[in-house]
Fold this protein.
Amino acid sequence: MLDFFQALENTGFSTWIRESGSIWAYPIVLTLHTIGLGMLVGFNWAVDLRLLGVGEQIPVLSMDRFFPWMWWGFWINAASGLVLTIADATTKMTSWVFGVKLALIACAIIVLRQIHKQVFVKQSSDGKALAAISLVLWILATTAGRLMAYIGPVSGLVGTSNN
């Protein structure tokens, strides 16, 4: 599997993203990733905080219009995240922190779908517990994403150690 990650990382596209001095390479992909994160998590937090009682003058159901924006943010993040991953595949795919980040994001998306289903479609729940779980998951996922810059790959998989 490590050979596959190295081959992926050594493609012309991956090398260009990682090593090019062009603003259209790594900087723009990272910027798109940040924009997608802001859209997805920002709107998600707005919904979560409203469900937890912040801004009670805003009708909860009026926030249903945020969901298409959250999904746009998700897909921007997924596409830019894939590009960032293949540009540094051996490091990311052998990092336990990256796995934790992806698992947390998957859980947060499941909770987001449940919030939409329970609160906005069925209108059968106030969603406070789901909103609290969502906030915690996004905090942890974002923290894991930032920790990837400081915590390296699993020792021994790519010939490096964490010492």
Helices lie at 2-9, 12-19, 26-51, 66-87, 89-93, 96-121, 128-147. Confidence is low (pLDDT under 50) at residues 155-163.
